[in-house]
Amino acid sequence: MAKKTSGTRTLKKNKLHFNGRIWIDMGKKAFLGYGRIELLEHIQRTGSISKAAAEMKMSYRQAWELIEDMNHTSAEPLVVSQRGGKGGGFALLTPIAREYIKLFKKFNKDFQKFLKSYH
Amino acid sequence: MAKKTSGTRTLKKNKLHFNGRIWIDMGKKAFLGYGRIELLEHIQRTGSISKAAAEMKMSYRQAWELIEDMNHTSAEPLVVSQRGGKGGGFALLTPIAREYIKLFKKFNKDFQKFLKSYH
User: Fold this and answer.
1) Are A95 and A78 in contact (CB under 8 A)?
2) Cβ atoms of residues B11 and A100 within 8 Å
3) Which of A4, A43, B45, B116 has the most CB atoms in a 10 Å sphere around its CB?
4) DSSP β-bridge partners for residue B26
5) Are B113 and B105 in contact (CB under 8 A)?
6) Geometric angle at alpha carbon A92, from A56 and A33, rounded to 5°
7) CB pair distance less than 8 Å for B20 and A99
8) What stretches of chain B show up as alpha helix (H) in DSSP?
9) What does pTM read for this prediction?
């Protein structure tokens, strides 16, 4: 005979997955999300927009536009870069970019913890 | 002379908005999100899929497909309906649907609280 349980017995809680995503706007403009943070981290590691773009399977142009958008939204640049030249181009994260990465990662870590609390 | 503050002074925290959205999957299938919950609530209030669809500015067909998808994903139906006939059609939420609405709203309320804690 099947066991009878009460209340929420019919909710298949073991099969439910509580999901979501987060991002940070500045004013009313989209500013930082998972993709942009990943791009910044690739730039930090490679020192190059084109390498970072390649690792993320996006075009140089796409990466460049994301960076331009972040730089303008922030008013203070997140990435300083120079293209081409003898030694090749370079790209560096500014200190504020590293702070934004830290802030976003904390935000996301807390969010993942929140989601897990539902499982 | 401008005041000097330390550390995160350059993060425009007052302008940052911490945003996100949540949803619930069942197994690997999308199951409940803001739109579907809103649809269920309109059905609960109006007793009619076509009225609920109109209030959400979607077609009857769109609403019907969302309901079919939820019913199949859940295995137990969330909405029971009958179309047309003399007295017109009707649509009713099952008890489990009301439990899912409650669960999602609690999840979302806690999530909004989480976002606010970042402001």
Assistant:
1) no
2) yes
3) A43
4) A16, B29
5) no
6) 45
7) no
8) 34-46, 49-55, 60-74, 95-116
9) 0.85
